[in-house]
Design goal:
This protein has about 400 residues and is an alpha+beta fold. It contains eleven helices and 16 strands. It has a 16-stranded mixed β-sheet that branches. Helix 3 packs across helix 9 and helix 5 packs across helix 6. The radius of gyration is 38 Å and the shape is rod-shaped.
Length: about 400
């Protein structure tokens, strides 16, 4: 049974949800980049120095310095005294040494420095430059943002997860290192595609997968095809089809037990069954993260085996789930399955939770009892992401 909020149509907007999620991840990356940057390292070193007791003592010493208390003043005084006592032109070694000193650039600069007003004198120092730089950086947008973010730290949940699989469909061709275009069982046993007894369209070997604007389209359309059908009483039978469809699966490249499985998908209106689903190497357990067909959105789970198989089926209706993008999510823990649409919980399940790795599948099929109107029909996928809890 779908949650009441879905029955009442209370679903957050896709763009708002995706923007918020993208912004959080961008902020997290920016935070980590700045945390490890030379800019922050420099600021922290500057802060440590400027706020230290040693710096305070140096500043105090600069501000309180007086020329009359300096060695330079004593040498100048001695020089003046000796000059007054000088008779004739012959100068003593001490006087020559002092004269050279008081006429030196070093003495002139030091006297000029020590005779300034305290604040003016301080403003000529490296200490002043460091203090001003520190105060400027402390009020800078970047530093203020960093410490404000550090205090709130909205990344605790995000930081728990590793991204283990991502597909953006930005190559304009199917990445065959990730995806196969047949059911796993047909490929493994016969190296061939096949469909089920209730299918009216045949799954081609990638011929119904299209790409545009960094998105994939799984197209169901009219078209002649010959292929195998699995019939319970006869096994695999070769038949002719008047319609074709498509499937992509990570069965050969990626499987995962537990985690968050997300995809941004636009389901097409009409009678074509379009599904984002997960399965292990056997037919059961089987999870429909999202299945849209005949104006109904389903979240289904099938588990068990043989005569002891079980199912949990939830659905909600409405044209709003057709022809626009939604983010469909399955959150899978050892004890619970949670289905979400645009981050809003749609369904949860605690019994029969699968304990084996499962792969990702996306497919569209025209079923035997479905109308042929509205073809061609395309299920569009913008992106897929899978996360796993960090150990």
């Amino acid at each position: 049974m779908a949650s009441l909020s879905f029955l009442l149509g209370m679903v957050p907007g896709t763009e708002k949800v995706e923007t918020a999620d993208d912004q959080l991840r961008a902020d997290f990356q920016a935070y980590k980049d700045y945390e490890n940057s030379d800019d922050l390292k420099h600021y922290l070193e500057l802060e440590k120095e400027v706020t230290s007791g040693d710096f305070a003592m140096r500043k105090k010493k600069i501000l309180k310095a007086k020329f009359k208390a300096s060695e330079a003043f004593r040498k100048e005084l001695r020089y003046n005294q000796l000059m007054k006592r000088l008779k004739g032109d012959e100068k003593s070694a001490e006087l020559n040494e002092l004269e050279e000193y008081v006429q030196s650039e070093e003495f002139i600069k030091q006297k000029q420095f020590l005779t300034m007003r305290p604040n003016e004198r301080y403003e000529t120092t490296d200490e002043y430059n460091k203090e001003i730089e520190y105060k400027t950086l402390k009020k800078s947008e970047k530093v203020l943002w960093y410490y404000k973010t550090k205090k709130k730290y909205p990344f605790k949940e995000l930081e728990k997860w590793n991204l283990t699989f991502e597909e953006k469909f930005n190559k304009s061709v199917l990445d065959t290192s990730k995806w196969m275009t047949r059911y796993f069982w047909g490929d493994k046993t016969m190296e061939s595609s096949f469909v089920l007894e209730d299918d009216k369209s045949f799954i081609t070997d990638g011929g119904n997968i299209e790409f545009y604007d960094n998105k994939a389209r799984i197209v169901t359309k009219a078209g002649k095809a010959e292929g195998l059908v699995w019939r319970a009483e006869q096994g695999f039978v070769l038949e002719d089809f008047d319609f074709t469809s498509g499937l992509i699966s990570t069965a050969k490249s990626f499987k995962q037990k537990y985690g968050i499985f997300k995809a941004k998908i636009k389901m097409a209106g009409g009678s074509v069954a379009q599904t984002f689903w997960m399965v292990s190497e056997t037919m059961l357990p089987h999870i429909d993260v999202a299945r849209f067909e005949n104006g109904k959105l389903h979240a289904n789970y099938f588990w068990g085996s043989g005569n002891s198989s079980n199912k949990s089926v939830s659905k909600t209706g409405g044209a709003k789930y057709a022809d626009q993008y939604y983010i469909f999510t399955l959150e899978w823990t050892p004890n619970k399955l949670v289905w979400k649409i645009n981050d809003k919980t749609f369904k949860s399940q605690t019994s029969g939770v699968p304990q084996e790795e499962m792969c990702i599948n996306l497919s569209s099929n025209l079923k035997k009892d479905s109308s042929e109107g509205g073809l061609p029909s395309a299920m569009e996928i913008d992106w897929i992401r899978v996360y796993k809890l960090k150990e």
